Amino acid sequence: MRAFTLGFEAGKRFLDDHEIFELIEEGQKQEWPMPVEGPSSTLGGLLPGIEPFRAIAQSVASGDVEAAASLVKMAVGEGWDGLILATDGLLKGMDAISILYNQKQAYVPEILLAARALDAGLEQCGDLGALESKGTVLIHTADGDLHDIGKNIVTAIVAANGYRVIDLGTSVDSGRVLEAVRVDRPIAVLGSSLMTSTRSAFLETADLLAKEGIEVPLIIGGGAIDGAFASQRENMRYAIDPRALVEVLDAIARAKGK
Description:
- With about 260 residues, the protein is α/β, with parallel strands linked by helices.
- It has two domains: about 15-125, Methionine synthase domain (Methyltransferase, Methionine Synthase (B12-binding Domains), Chain A, domain 1, Orthogonal Bundle), CATH 1.10.1240.10; about 135-255, 3-Layer(aba) Sandwich (Rossmann fold), CATH 3.40.50.280.
- Helices cover about 50% and strands about 15% of the residues.
- It has eleven helices and six strands.
- Strands 1-3-2-4-5-6 form a six-stranded mixed β-sheet, sandwiched between helices.
- Strand 4 (about 190), helix 9 and strand 5 form a beta-alpha-beta unit.
- Helix 3 (about 55-60) crosses helix 6.
- The chain starts with a strand and ends with a helix.
């Protein structure tokens, strides 16, 4: 079980070199769709308009680890507040690359490298105690599904948007999910499935949570999932992409007064 906070609290765990490049290597083996036709965003138009925030955001969106760390370190040395640099610079860069990913203008390596650059920049921000977590979420792939690229991308984007993400891993059965929910008390459980043969595991998990009287939503996505499947249970929701997921989580967090 791995908890990713991407710098939002003490005890944070960053992706190390071995992990990040292992994930990139796995991602490069996948077949990804060509960029969508029609309206799309450009990176420049998604970045802050003033410095030093623009350059810092650019370094994250470009996955430039050294630049992210050095630019933030320099700005802190010039008197900029670390919290402002994080919210108005680093996180804006992660948000920009996330938008491009949703539009199929960026792919797995870009997302994972941006997460690494974000971590490096946050390490230079100093105490970020005021940057409170919006809440804890659990994430896993369906029992029997060992694909984790989509899960890892969602983890990076959700964590970058202020959530503490506890990664339960791949092929997680409903009993393990229930145990983790009882221990970690998340505001939501996230699930990913790329195989239609495994997605029924989410029905079992949803039923078990309901049977135990646990009112936590199970938000699912991935290539094997659609809205019709998720509608089979009252406590399941469908998120078509990471940004839609963040919007759902933000709504849950607001409802809980976070």
